[in-house]
Design goal:
By secondary structure, the chain is α/β, with parallel strands linked by helices. It has 12 helices and 9 strands. The strands form 2 sheets. It has a 6-stranded parallel sheet, sandwiched between helices. It starts with a strand and ends with a strand. Bound molecules: adenosine monophosphate.
Length: about 280
């Protein structure tokens, strides 16, 4: 695997690769890699001739300074993991390399940025859009792989690509989970023992939603989910919403027959904030 820290060097290298008619796949990450990230790299490897992964902890998307400070950084281990899955290139730029000047871009995603993560993390999706636009421009990949674990982010990225006319195809990839159902996340390493032991209740509860919804209102459902998850005392639901999976329009009554729905949740586990989701047919 070749490691690049400079945009110019990566661009020059990929220009040579393109001459060999290789299609390029791209997996952007913030590092502290786990099997969920590696599944994206494997997917890229199976569909494209050449795979680039980036590791960049993007300061612009953190609305909580403590979260940025404590975000796990495990570069040596990440490099070893990427080599194991035969990733071709790692792009690991510095903050100065990515943002040499003051950042002023402002994107407008309308409704998509006003709900759920957008409502609870002001400025977060603008920061995501800034870095994803920049990375997609630099790598100019044929396909880029994003996890459904961050479903709203995936919708934002698709909208960004549409608005900016970016040629890269966005490929959604399913959520990778621990054997007990907890969605893999770099932040899981920061969970205390009690929080980690309690956390599987999140996905366990999400999976029961379709059945519960057959005989209950959305309001009852939200109260029930919150009670189930908060019960241990180690977890605290921030929000739980049911939305149309195709456009994330929030569903607040029973008028949804035949639609594909998604339950999206954010939960505080001590100082760590976890998100997850579950798609189902109504
Ligand atoms: P992050 O490093 O958390 O910014 O994530 C980088 C990419 O990996 C994003 O597209 C995430 O949605 C994706 N990702 C993170 N965790 C998982 C997971 N458990 N399963 C699938 N994809 C994931």
């Amino acid at each position: 695997m070749i490691i690049f820290e400079k945009i110019e060097d990566l661009r020059a290298h990929l220009a040579e690769i393109r001459k060999e008619h290789e299609s390029i796949g791209f997996v952007p990450t913030m590092g502290a890699l786990h099997d969920g990230h590696l599944a994206l790299v494997r997917r890229s490897k199976s569909c494209t001739g050449y795979t680039v992964c980036s590791i960049f902890v993007n300061p612009v998307q953190f609305n909580n300074p403590d979260d940025l400070l404590k975000y796990p950084r495990t570069l040596e281990k990440d490099i070893a993991l990427l080599e194991q899955v035969q990733c071709d290139v790692l792009f690991h730029p510095s903050v100065k390399e990515m943002y040499p000047d003051e950042i002023t871009e402002k994107y407008d995603f309308g409704y998509l940025e006003q709900i759920m993560e957008g409502a609870h993390r002001p400025g977060h999706f603008n920061g995501v859009a800034i870095v994803v636009k920049k990375l997609l421009d630099i790598v100019d990949a044929d396909r880029a792989y994003f996890g459904e674990k961050d479903y709203q982010q995936l919708m934002i990225v698709k909208e960004l690509v549409r608005q900016c006319g970016i040629r890269t195809q966005i490929i959604p990839c399913p959520t990778t989970r621990e054997p007990d159902g907890l969605a893999m996340s770099s932040r899981n390493t920061r969970l205390g023992q009690a929080e980690r032991e309690a956390a599987p209740v999140i996905f366990k509860t999400l999976k029961q939603i379709p059945e519960f919804l057959k005989t209950n209102s959305i309001e009852n459902l939200k109260n029930w989910v919150t009670a189930q998850i908060n019960e241990s005392g180690f977890l605290q639901v921030e929000y739980i919403d049911i939305a149309d999976a195709s456009d994330l329009h929030i569903i607040d009554n029973h008028d949804f027959k035949g639609q594909k729905l998604i339950a999206c949740i954010a939960v505080h586990a001590g100082p760590v904030r976890l998100i997850d989701n579950f798609q189902f047919n109504s």
